[in-house]
Amino acid sequence: MSEFTAVESLPAPKTVFLKESLNEGLPGPEHFDIVEGEPIDLDAIEEGSIVVQAKALSADPYLRGQIKSTGPIKGGKPVRGFIAGKVVASKNPAWVVGDLIGASLAFSTLQVVTATGLAQTVSWKLTGLIDESEISYGVGILGMPGATAYGGLIDVLRPLAGETIFISAASGAVGSLVGQIAKQNYGCKVIASVGGPSKCALVKEKFGFDHAIDYKTVNSADDLIAAIREVAPEGIDMYFENVGGIHFDAAFATLRSRGRIALCGGISEYNNSAPTPTTFQPLKMIYTQQRIEGFLAGDWLQGAKGNFLVDMNNWFREGKLQVQETVSDGIESWPLAFQSLFTGANVGKVVVRV
């Protein structure tokens, strides 16, 4: 049975388009267009489809690679990423009007998602976890960043009580949650790398991390190694990688026997046309029995592994996790919000309310 809102209640959609591929350099508003489309004809919607009204758009570092010529988002096409919103029309029995949804979709204020489209993307139900006033959490703590932190720490790094973890970009959407889960649930010693005194204060005072290293005060991997060893003389047991470059080199140099590294991202490299050479020597890992693993969030986000949505929501409601957001309003603000990820202007999760 079909269920619809009135046609006149649905405005014409606005969508973020990429002008042309950007292989290097800082992305900004000049690289994107906001295009207004035609109103959706609800009578033409196929069985199995839903209409999603976006309420929050995510800005995430991984999208920088998506808009290169080697990436899947091509010039003249919509930008696609994680959104949270509301189902405003449905011909799909799994979704009813009013359901809150998280999904990887085009950055459009309003769109039809067919049954095939749903089957080919990542989506998850937020109904019953948050209300519309908290919809930004659907692209943050209850979205891809939350699932990345949850799966990357619990299943990839597999922390033991009292171990030491080093986290790069530790004031960001993922790193801030990794450190809090490690601290609250496993009693880990948490060492954060962040940029600037205010972020150092934030991760220690709000998130409860043990130590904060201001990476802007170091000039080389050797400097960062020294800074890590100053607060962890015996080395680190785990490293959650968000940055790359000298952060990886320093973390690997200070990694103890049986240490683990979770490869989540490398934002220091994203604006470069080619990766920077590294001093990484994998053969050293044999006798130290160390492990490095790359991973994606999808399994935890969709419930194939773990109990992400329930666990994270419970920890948040219990006050174990603090959320920090950098919020802007209107789909037109997305390009500048995206740029802030690479200038250090953001703190926590970058989200655009629409």
Explain this structure.
The chain has 354 residues and is an alpha/beta fold. It folds into 2 domains: 3-140 and 324-353, Alpha-Beta Complex (Quinone Oxidoreductase, Chain A, domain 1); 145-298, NAD(P)-binding Rossmann-like Domain (Rossmann fold). It is 26% helix and 25% strand. The strands form 3 sheets. Strands 1, 4, 5, 6, 7, 8, 15 and 16 form an 8-stranded mixed sheet that branches. Strands 11-10-9-12-13-14 form a 6-stranded parallel sheet, sandwiched between helices. The chain has a two-stranded antiparallel sheet with strand order 2-3. The radius of gyration is 21 Å and the shape is globular.
Question: Fraction of residues in helices?
Answer: 25-40%
Task: Look at the structure and give the mean pLDDT.
Answer: 94
Number of discrete helical segments: 11
Radius of gyration: 21 Å
Number of strands: 16
CATH superfamily membership of the largest domain, which one?
Answer: Medium-chain alcohol dehydrogenases, catalytic domain
Order of helices and strands: EEEEHEEEHEHEHEHEHEHEHEHHEHE
Oligomeric state of the chains in view: single chain
* Beta-strand content bin: 25-35%
Could you describe the largest sheet, including whether it forms a barrel?
A: 8 strands, mixed
Classify the fold: give the CATH topology of the largest domain. Answer: Quinone Oxidoreductase, Chain A, domain 1
- For the record, the count of structural domains works out to 2
Characterize the overall form. globular
